[in-house]
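## tool: complex_structure
## caller: assistant
## args:
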Amino acid sequence: MAHFINERSGLVTDAIDGLLAASGGTLARLDGYPEIRVVLRAELDPGKVAVISGGGSGHEPAHAGFVGPGMLSAAICGDVFASPSVDAVLAGILAATGPAGCLLVVKNYAGDRLNFGLAAERARAAGIKVETVLVADDIALPDAAQPRGIAGTLFVHKIAGHAAVTDASLDAVAAIARRTAGAVQSLGIAVSTATIPGSSPEQRLAEGEAELGLGIHGEPGIERITLPKAAALARQMTERFSGTVAASQRLALLVNNLGSATALEMQILTKAVLDTPLGARVALVLGPAPAMTALDMHGVSLSFLALDDELEAALLAQTDVPAWPRARPVAAPLVRALPDGLRGAPEPTPSHDAAAAGAVTAVCEALIGAEASLNALDAKVGDGDTGSTFAGGARAVLGDLDRLPQADAAALCRALGERLGRAAGGSSGVLMSIFFAAAGSALSDGVSWPTALARGVERVRDYGGAGPGDRTMLDALIPAVEALETGGLEAAARAARDGAAATASMQRAGTGRSSYLAASDLAGHEDPGAVAVAIAFEALAGLPRGAPK
Amino acid sequence: MAHFINERSGLVTDAIDGLLAASGGTLARLDGYPEIRVVLRAELDPGKVAVISGGGSGHEPAHAGFVGPGMLSAAICGDVFASPSVDAVLAGILAATGPAGCLLVVKNYAGDRLNFGLAAERARAAGIKVETVLVADDIALPDAAQPRGIAGTLFVHKIAGHAAVTDASLDAVAAIARRTAGAVQSLGIAVSTATIPGSSPEQRLAEGEAELGLGIHGEPGIERITLPKAAALARQMTERFSGTVAASQRLALLVNNLGSATALEMQILTKAVLDTPLGARVALVLGPAPAMTALDMHGVSLSFLALDDELEAALLAQTDVPAWPRARPVAAPLVRALPDGLRGAPEPTPSHDAAAAGAVTAVCEALIGAEASLNALDAKVGDGDTGSTFAGGARAVLGDLDRLPQADAAALCRALGERLGRAAGGSSGVLMSIFFAAAGSALSDGVSWPTALARGVERVRDYGGAGPGDRTMLDALIPAVEALETGGLEAAARAARDGAAATASMQRAGTGRSSYLAASDLAGHEDPGAVAVAIAFEALAGLPRGAPK
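## result:
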């Protein structure tokens, strides 16, 4: 896969420059490129304890994205997934630290321990007050001698950063940071690995597989599992938390996007976690948001912090750092009643008519049966949902069949229009709704079926803005309705099928999403809406799908 | 690929529930599941114009994530990539709109036009004041009859939302919204398509390819290109902007992550865009951030808005909506001088010694030559950077060769330690730094080479916490240094190679990232740090790499 970069060697410095450019002048960097990559607050207060963190890059917004008032004073950025050098850490300490001293927040990796540790020793030798807190929140291996530091580190940044701006002493800042580090546990799950920009992706996982307890550097997980549904996954993950976290009655939860999980998934998983027994004790939720990522890994980590009043106040304190996923109190969902006046007309009186019910059923079943093939056809020229749109509408109609006014053709058409307007999304759905509503109105004026359907076609052209030859369902619907007058249903079905077939050679779509495609992408593919119309008329006429003439 | 969901059919409602749960009680929804999915502010002020938007889901945080004070009053959520139904839109209008009326912000797609348009007509028939603004900001096809609405829609949300909270009339809100829509242009680029959670990914693009001018629903781009470097891409994209935007001397820029581009790439591209002629006229930058996504598409869109004082003030106005990518003034990067005291000792006096230079050169060149193979080995058991760490250090040393005190062994060792501490990240880098620093100090105490190197080994064990058998470079270094005393360089090289080979059968790593792996993942793979040590000793001894005994 291609990546949006310049030179691989300039990955981190280029990115830091971009961060600074978009920071509104709140961030600065040290003049130490390429080796020394230190981001610091443009305005530092030497009277306050400096809170400094950092580590390998590739975890953005961590760490440089958390530099700002009430959080970090400076961040030291290593290469992607590699600890920064001792000199880089030392430069950050010297640049950001005043008489109040500094706290180094270090994730528990050998490299970070060594580099931050040696830098701290050098700084102390130069007369600077330095304290260090190690974060080792990963519970993937419960009996690991050296648990990793992962997203729970964010809690330490925020709480130590808040203590520092409230003029706490270095000892006090270090103490609350250590208390936080001791009260947080994290666990990650992912369905893909991380790809370093400029490299090729690795495919370690089979379809449907996930890794539980993986690291934030692409390290394999402790366990490879078949990914369960979100609710079951949330239970499985939350059951692994133990000790202080499991014992706490009041928790904060950070739902961290490891990179490329979609927002939909993140929101689904957040709800699933809050619905578990452990989740029920969450008082504050942070995210879902990318906070400590692993490049583009498709995964998520959960970090739980056992709260007390002091930690909670520090988490809730306002900060001007854009990347900080604000802590919000968990509240019961607010559900409002549907507004009055949503249904225009009263429901029509149900009635039974075998022929009408049979015709409606035949069309609906044919469209439901064609869902996958219409989706596949649409995937080539659009967004792949035509089959689901028609099938969704058909299911809603079938489910309501006994409540329809089957014996009153005009009322039946209007009721179909009403139901399709409610159940079917997409332009096809609403156009079908318009079609049936207009046809129903025409039928109640006493016109014939062919004339009524022609009225429906007219309104579809008005609202949708398409005409014949524009590669839409009209290319099947218009000839079908015309043929109906003279040749009956079978002629209409054959005309619809011919019309649908003709769309395959139409070089340009006049409307809808296909209109954004080049002619070469369209060539040879029938318009899925037109095919759906043909299928419907074939079902009405009792012909097999795509029947030859 | 597996996804973090429950049922595919509940994708959108489950996600909305998660959004609400994490909203701190600021958001509510209508009781219309599954068809009617409307998110609205928990507290609506009927005295102010309601600003309502929506469309297909899959674009999160758009649209529901932008519901909040100063932005949207309500968002209507369709299925993934499908417009919401007329009834859903109508429900949102009825629920969110008071006597001041409402503005519908509609992206220019046939489905949205139809559904929002029909709903607006029904609402008007019920006596509600409704205005509609269409956003058609996509410039992928400059002569398109119906340009799409993409991320530029966010500017309309923010500016109309701000006008509404300042008590502007419906006409005034609609007017500024239309002015904004007329002053914004957007263009997207992506290197992967979007995958709907629960579906399998489609691979439309070859390695190194990108699509320019693609849509936010997975529609193919207008042009398939070989992705250039970020700077060239930024020039190529910005040159396509025209009309109002190209003529404006003061622009706002939204850098929108379409889904899974890494933060590193987004920051790099932001800087690249700001460095173009068009970018030089950007006064306000928003993002980089996910704002109008296409699920997990790896891509980015640029939206430029021609500013005037009124639009700028509305963009800068404070809003409490977490997903809003705050507008920040573009400022020159702040670069601070490196702090004094960073270099402990003064630079040693350079000197020349052919043997020392030859030895250093041989080792460095061997390590540079092994970069790719060591990275590949490390990718199996760690994060794939060992080769680059050693090669990076080697390049820094080679580049400084003439400034090294070649003729003074102790000073040379200390200088190597100093340079490796500066240039090489990762634990291997700092351990090598410690190794040479300690060896240098020992040499200046007058001990022999083997004894000095043994002192280095001792310090590496102290700081790194590993010992023999822990699957680290020590497993090659310890036997090599021991063999040096009795057998000279060639024996040392063979001992190092044997030690490296032995790591392949060590079932558990005692330290470093490999320690998080299961035995089965380690089996048969040599530790890359140990192999690097073997390569270095072989180079010193003049043996070919991996020479047989």
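## assistant note: The mean pLDDT of chain A is 91. Chain A has two domains: 8-194+205-329, 354-541. Handing back to user.
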